[in-house]
Amino acid sequence: MEPQGVLVEKLPELLDFPKDLVTLEASTKIQLKYLAEEMQAISKGLEKVVQELTASENDGPVSETFCSTLKEFLSFAEGEVGSLASLYSSVGRNADALALYFGEDRARCPFEQVVSTLLNLVRMFVRAHEENCKQLELEKKKAQKKAESEKLKISTPRKESEHLIQSLIKNANIQ
Question: Residue 31: which H helix or E strand, with range?
Answer without folding.
Answer: none
